[in-house]
Amino acid sequence: MLALLLAVNLLNYLDRQVLYSLLPLIQTDLFLTDAQAGKLASAFMIVYMFAAPPIGYWADRGSRRLWIAMGIALWSLATAASGLAPGYRSLFAARAAVGIGESCYGAISPSFIAEHFPASKRGSVLAVFSMAIPVGSALGYIAGGSLGEHWGWRNAFFLVSLPGLALALLSLALSEPRSRALSEPQPGPGAYLDLFSVPSFLIVTLAGAAMTFALGGFAVWMPSFFHREWGWGVGRAGMVFGAITVASGIAGSLAGGWLADWALKFTRKAYFLVSGLGLFIGLPLAVAAVLCPAPSVSLGLLFGAEFFLFLNMGPLNAIIVSVTKPSCRSMAFAANIFVIHALGDAISPAIIGELSDHFGLKIALLMASSTLGAAAGLCFWGTRHYERDASYA
Q1: What is the domain partition of the chain in residue ranges?
Q2: Predicted confidence band at 180 (pLDDT cuts at 50, 70, 90)?
Q3: pTM recorded for the entire structure
Q4: Taking phi first (over 0 means left), then psi (-120 to 50 degrees means alpha), and beta for anything else, what does residue 190 get?
Q5: pLDDT-derived band of residue 184, with 50, 70 and 90 as boundaries?
Q6: Which of 19, 25, 340, 364 is the most exposed place for a label (fewest CB within 10 A)?
Q7: Which of 219, 10, 237 is nearest to 109 (CA)?
Q8: Distances from the Cα of 219 to the Cαs of 114, 238, 365, in angstroms?
Q9: Domain 2-171+189-392, CATH 3.30.40.10 — does that match?
């Protein structure tokens, strides 16, 4: 189950991120400004976040494996449709449709996986699952840059969409882990507001939003930054950024999950502490990576920044599982998705694009990175509430 859903999550982020290494080619072909290019990423995120709450609500009342399978099939078909788009509006619509499919998976899969394992292992398990975020994203940069350079951006979309249909069929064999939850009284839509009355849930969601604002903007614009600052081709830019993200993401995600579960033996605040520490250290490294003029040094700093920022992937998801009841966990992740993207990467790529048009891409990236400090502060604040909230769930 974990292996299959990890593979699906890799594809999830590959299909999501493949656009970004293709942006220079798409902009040239369709004559797009940076602001328009940034709005392509925002189209996906806005639909993704608005689709998640109703999907999370329905999934808590039915078969989550069916929702997972439908989501995989839909986003794969929409990715293929991106390659058929004749112009900006149709490409915008196709990327928005990818958001609907991926919201089915993002709102359901973390709790689906977590409920198969005891609480003492959830940090490590969700870290393995969340490892797909950097690795899948990196594969998207690598595949997009390489395929786009050799076969064109349209064919790149076609090729990366193919594995999804096979994985959609395989996901139909998954077993539901929580029949007990379906027999419990099911909360109504008003439970979404109740979730935000839990301090730990509110704090982890706001911290995720602050972090996602910065990381989402970097994910979209760093390949273009390499292309403009150092004159690299899109293939090389995507390959290098992807390789750094894979290495730092695997190491950081696994280290964060292991460290948080180990520290949990000594303090129940471990998930918030590990996440806050990683964000606190990652911020100055990210700023230095953008400012450094030497590519080799900049890439080393970028690796260090991503390593520390990815420490929180498993722990933050484990917090959501720990402070919410089984009967509304899909709703909890859906609400989290809505807020972190509404305040995060649904708006940051377009904002960075607008700032780049006026002040240059380097200044825009530096301004966006400041939200990592807010994310770190929120995580440290969350340690005051976690023990009490987890005991009530």
Answers
A1: 2-171+189-392
A2: very low
A3: 0.77
A4: alpha
A5: low
A6: 25
A7: 10
A8: 27, 11, 11
A9: no
